[in-house]
Amino acid sequence: MNPLSIQFENVIPAPLADYPTEGQVWRCGLKLEFPARILLNASSGKGKTTFSSIVYGLRNDYSGKVLIDGKDVSTFSLNDWILLRRMKLSAIFQDMQLFPKLTAWENLILKNNLTSHRDESRIEQMLARLGMAERKHQLCGTLSLGQQQRIAIVRGMLQPFHLLVMDEPFSHIDEENAAKALELIEEETALNGAGYILTTLGSRHGKQFDREVNL
Amino acid sequence: MIKKILFKGHLSSQFVFATAGMLIGLTALLLSCQLILDVQSFHESEQELFGPNSIVIQKRVTKFTTLGANSTDFTPEDIESLRSKPFITDIAPFQSADFKVGISEVPGDGLPHFYADMFFQSVPDRFMDVKDVEWEWKDTTDIIPIVLPRDFIMIINYGIAQSQGMEQISEELMLAAKLKIHIEGQGKKVKQVGRVVGFSNKISSILVPEAYLSYMNTNYGNARITAPNRIFVTIVDDSYRELEDLMDEMNLDISKASIDVVKIKTVIAVVIGIFGLASALIMLLSLMGFVQYSQLVLSRAAYETKTLLRIGYSVSAVVKSFLSRLGLVFGVITGLAVLTMVLVKIYVVNIWLDDNGIHLEESGSSPTVVVGLITFLLFVLANYLNIRKTVTRLGKE
To answer: Which residue in B5, B304, B312 is closest to A85 by CB distance?
Structure first.
């Protein structure tokens, strides 16, 4: 078990400051304890990506306080965040954030090299399960969005983590492939003794979650 | 793999200009350093042109001096005032013989018969321009070494010898023959043997070792000489103007040849200095070019840099990837500049100097290489700071 806690205390992102909020996150007190499987539900424009970015340390344009394991993240340096991203926090970005000039395989190895978390045969196995084995030597820039999304999902699991933050990771994937991907994610999360946050537009992908939070 | 992501294979015009600028600038800078070193270490013994800046100063003899109204002696205050001048780095009064000296030939040694009154002086060894001769004297030394002014032998051969029907004497004969020295002082007389060991271009005095003169002054001195009237001073480069002012201030007399040397050295130092300054300026521009180039590469790779930091790569790892490529470029340029400098020096500058009759003695190149190394490190450091700052900024965006 790899515990981790995230607390939002009266947080409101600057772009949402002038709008009324009604969910359980913005301008509220929210505490999430991991390992747990959390579904974050919201329609477009409610701040799902903003939420993920705040948790992952990519945005600080908000008021209120965010705590990770009881520590105020506003005191974290860039190096603190980088270390956290390498050892405890992993993310699957909505816009994938892959390197288009590298092949799918190079993108994965680049990430795995940091911590040597998984051996090559396991990575190949993951690719095969998501139907991407034959595309591994293709440049990422030439893959379809759905294919890129599956590479990004595999990459998100090539490091030790306590929490996996996923921002609409299946937005370009059909339900069948999304279900396969979620199965793989649950397996890897369990292997790591970790938890995840999955943001969606409402779909539960046929799964049960430990907790559902509405933005 | 990180380099593959960060450098996208574009050769920008900034890179080409900065590389050319650094190569030209560094070569010129190293060349000026090497030339300054060569000029400074130029000691060709008696053929000296750009030797250490040591000159002999004495007070000008005027009609008042002849009438006994003023003295050409340097008072302790004069010496102290000279010592306090910032452009004078070394000072030593001439020591003069305080006894009567005469020389004649040693019969059978090849010199014609002659007798002449003489006057011995001595200067500290560090001011001697005659090197590599047996100059040490102890009270057990049989033959006293003597250095004559080169003009002296000219006067004998083209003046005295012809007018008195004497044979002319070659430098070789003068160096080979012994001389009899007649000393008279404190009511005592003694005869010693001496030998000319060299000829000085710089000092128009008949020189003997300092230790010998001190010993003889103690034992034969008549206590008539109390203050020195000639002083050796060493001045820093480019101090021609200060020297001129000093001459007016103290009514000094300095040989024109000495002044010319100082003048030439000042001009050369200024010319090389301007050349060095211009090359340093080119280097600075090229450094700015490289900083601009790395900014350009970083801005083109902004997405990649941000993403690397997002997936857990450290700032240092990203900076290292940028810098190792640039460091390699700087290393190659520095190596090429040193090589070009050596080739230009051997095949262009030295040949030109030779054609113009200036023979520079080769001096060590290690200080020049150190200058190259410092420049290399400066380029690496400036780019490191710039890249680190930009990468950190991108990481925080």
So the answer is: B312
Residues of chain B contacting A91 with CB distance shorter than 8 Å: 310
- The CATH number of the domain holding residue A146 is 3.40.50.300
pLDDT at position B9, please? 64
Question: How many Å separate Cα B234 from the centre of its chain?
Answer: 11
Q: What are phi and psi of A40, to 5 degrees?
A: -105, 115
Token digits for B77? 């205050």
DSSP characters over B92-141: EEPEE--SEEEEEE-TTSSPPP-EEEE-EEE--GGG-S--SS-----TT-
* Cβ within 8 Å, pair B1-A110: yes
| Bond before A35 cis per omega within 30 degrees | yes
Nearest CA in chain B to A108: B311
The 8-class DSSP code of residue A208 comes to -
Characterize the bridge pairing of strands A163-167 and A195-200.
Answer: parallel
B310 CA: distance to closest CA in chain A (Å): 7
pLDDT category of residue B48 using cuts at 50, 70 and 90: very low
Mean pLDDT of A178-189: 92
What is the H or E stretch that residue A150 is in? helix A145-156
Work out the burial of residue A5: count CB atoms within 10 Å of its CB; fewer than 13 is exposed, 13-18 middle, 19 or more buried. middle
Considering only residues B362 and A207, tell me which one the structure prediction assigns the higher pLDDT.
A207
Q: What is the ipTM of this complex?
A: 0.92
pLDDT tens digits for range B84-122: 888 888 888 888 888 899 988 888 877 778 788 888 889
Structural domains of chain A, count: 1
> Shortest CB distance from A82 goes to which of B1, B304, B312?
B312
How many beta-carbon pairs under 8 angstroms link A with B? 48
Query: Measured between CB atoms, does A111 come within 8 Å of chain B?
Result: yes
Please state, for a pLDDT cut of 90, what percent of chain A lies above it. 80
Domain limits for position A25: 4-214
Reference B314, options A96, A66, A87, A104; nearest CA is A87
Provide the b/e sequence for B300-336 (b: ≥16 CB within 10 Å).
ebeebbbbbbbbbbbbeebbbbbbeebbebbeebbee
**pTM beyond 0.90:** no
Residue A204, CB half-sphere, CA atoms under 13 Å: how many?
A: 11
User: B348-393, pLDDT tens digit by residue?
Assistant: 878 887 787 666 666 677 888 888 899 899 989 999 999 999 999 9
Name which of A54, A76, A78 to mutate to probe chain B: the one with the most chain B Cβ atoms within 10 A of its Cβ: A78
